[in-house]
Amino acid sequence: MLARTEIDGHAPSAAEVLPAALVNYGHVTVMQVRDRAVRGLDLHLARLDAANRELFGAGLDGGRVRDHIRHALADTADATVRVTVFRGDGGVSVMVTVRPPEEAATTPQGLRSVVYRRPVPHIKHTGTFAQIHYGLLAGREGFDDALLVDHQGVVSEAGIANVLCHDGDTFVWPDAPALPGVTMRLLDRAGLGARRRTVRLADLPSFAAVFVTNSRGVAPVGRVDDHAVPHDPEIFARVAGLYESIPWDPL
Question: Is the entire prediction scored with pTM above 0.85?
Answer without folding.
Answer: yes
